Amino acid sequence: MADNDLGSLLGNLLGRGSHSGSGKMLGALFNAAGSEAGNPLEGLLVQLTDGGLGTKVASWVGTGENENVSGAEIAQVLPPGLLALAARTGGLGEVDAADQIAETLPVAVDKLTPEGQTPQGALEELIAQQL
């Protein structure tokens, strides 16, 4: 699926419309993370966990309260070039992109993991189930 299609689905999931910059940025992150892991959601969550955000990621996946994350934390743990890609995709600078990702990523992950665990399957199908 094309990046913009995934971005549109994520924008709808977030309730911000199909042309949401946030959805497009998250779509770029998921697609880039999933290219090696196979499952884009799981790939991104592993990267964030390996970068030191494991407790926060676990709260987003779990069924309890989501822990907040800062844009600075997002910028610190994303692999080189990934934040730049997301920023370009969303038409923002890297600092603003990191802040927007920090605001929307926990919500997206929470909605994509309603059972408290990372589901398997195509990300597009997982999003469609939540819409």
Describe the protein.
There is one protein chain. By secondary structure, the protein is mostly helical. It has helices at about 5-15, 20-35, 40-60, 70-75, 80-90, 95-110, 125-130. Helices cover about 70% and strands about 0% of the residues. Helix 1 (about 5-15) packs parallel to helix 7, helix 4 (about 70-75) packs across helix 6 and helix 5 (about 80-90) crosses helix 6 (about 95-110). It has a single domain (about 5-130), classed as YidB-like (Arc Repressor Mutant, subunit A), CATH 1.10.10.
Primary descriptors:
mainly alpha; Arc Repressor Mutant, subunit A; 7 helices; 71% helix
Task: Describe the protein's topology.
Elements: H1 3-13, H2 21-37, H3 40-61, H4 71-77, H5 82-90, H6 94-112, H7 123-130
Helix pairs in contact: 1-2, 1-7, 2-3, 2-5, 3-4, 3-6, 4-6, 5-6
Compact description:
The chain is 71% helix and 0% strand. The protein is mainly α and 131 residues long.
Q: Helicity, in percent? A: over 70%
CATH superfamily: YidB-like
In sequence order, what are the helices and strands, one letter per element? HHHHHHH
Structural class: mainly alpha
Poorly predicted regions:
none
CATH topology: Arc Repressor Mutant, subunit A
Computed over alpha carbons, the radius of gyration is 13 Å
Number of beta-strand segments: 0
Main sheet characteristics: none
**What is the strand content?**
under 5%
**What is the count of distinct domains?**
1
Helical stretch tally: 7
- Indicate the CATH architecture: Orthogonal Bundle
In the CATH hierarchy, what is the class? Mainly Alpha
Mean pLDDT: 81
Overall, the morphology is globular
N/C terminus separation: 18 Å
